[in-house]
Amino acid sequence: MDLADLQDLLRSGAVRLDLTGHARIEAMKDGLLSEDLKQVAEFGEIVEEYDERHRVLLLGHTESDGLPCHLVLEYQPAEDFATIVTAYVPDLAQWHPNFKTRKLR
């Protein structure tokens, strides 16, 4: 997945952004708004890639309060939509303070 191209398509409206029910619930639990998720999808950076599933884990920060936000974004090439599969505020118990590197178990 070429994230820069996808993010350009999202920002221009050529590709719409969908959310799974799971993503809505998890985001709500962590106080993340749909605007926060859109911001991360459009401007976030790749933390992990899952090429076989056409998914990436993105990191961004909420505009309102700077909270870190992870979301898993799925996009099948040539589709007119991308899907947020899940979204959450990363836990420091599982992630290093930069929220880009998982802690070893």
Describe this structure in words.
- There is one protein chain.
- This protein is of the alpha+beta class.
- The protein has one domain (3-88): YaeB-like fold (2-Layer Sandwich), CATH 3.30.2310.
- Strands 1-5-4-3-2 form a 5-stranded mixed β-sheet.
- It has helices spanning 3-12, 21-29, 34-43, and strands at 16-19, 45-50, 55-61, 68-74, 81-88.
- The longest helix is centred in the first third of the chain and has 10 residues, at 3-12.
- 22% of the residues are buried.
Entry keywords:
alpha+beta, 105 residues, YaeB-like fold, single chain
How many beta-strand segments?
5
* CATH fold group: YaeB-like fold
Biggest sheet architecture: 5 strands, mixed
Contiguous uncertain segments of 5+ residues? none
Order of helices and strands: HEHHEEEE
CATH architecture: 2-Layer Sandwich
Domain count: the total is 1
Global structural class:
alpha+beta
Count of alpha/pi helices: 3
Would you state the CATH class?
Alpha Beta
Global morphology: globular
Q: Round the Cα radius of gyration to an integer and report it.
A: 13 Å
Overall pLDDT metric: 95
In short:
The chain has 105 residues and is of the alpha+beta class. It has three helices and five strands. It has one domain: YaeB-like fold (2-Layer Sandwich).
Topology:
Layout lengths: L2 H10 L3 E4 L1 H9 L4 H10 L1 E6 L4 E7 L6 E7 L6 E8 L17
Parallel strand pairs: 1-5
Antiparallel strand pairs: 2-3, 3-4, 4-5
